[in-house]
Inverse folding.
């Protein structure tokens, strides 16, 4: 796969993310459930971005990787590097979905889910620092 320097996909993802958040706000839901829906949309959107980066190999969208470095390492290493991010954020999105549903059913206050979301997404982001190209 020939890598082309473009941020078009990233800009489109940002527009899609913004649109998803806007549409979530239009849902006829109130209270804790809308908070959980928006929280889960956010986690899945981050995983989707990582998936887009994996498929397109545009790892230079990640901070700290230049386009030149991405081209130099070749397709196999770009894919392997991007897959680690995709797996990390994808697993977190699925785990958080399960936890948020369980906590909602158990009538646990929504702030507990929000704390888990915050700690989890920051933890996953920090954990990706160990990934080397």
């Amino acid at each position: 796969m020939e890598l082309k320097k473009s941020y078009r996909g990233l800009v489109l993802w940002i527009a899609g993310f913004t649109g998803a958040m806007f549409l979530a706000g239009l849902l006829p839901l109130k209270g804790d459930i809308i908070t959980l829906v928006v929280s889960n949309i956010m986690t899945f959107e981050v995983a989707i971005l990582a998936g887009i980066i994996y498929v397109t190999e545009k790892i230079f969208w990640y901070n700290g990787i230049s386009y030149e470095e991405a081209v130099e390492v070749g397709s196999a290493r770009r894919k392997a590097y991007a897959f680690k991010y995709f797996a990390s954020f994808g697993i977190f999105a699925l785990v958080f979905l399960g936890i948020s549903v369980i906590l909602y059913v158990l009538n646990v206050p929504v702030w507990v889910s929000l704390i888990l979301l915050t700690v989890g997404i920051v933890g996953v982001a920090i954990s990706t620092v160990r990934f080397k190209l």
The chain has a mean pLDDT of 96. Helices lie at 8-26, 32-56, 67-73, 75-105, 110-127. Residues 36 and 112 are 11 Å apart (CA to CA). DSSP finds five helices and no strands in the chain.
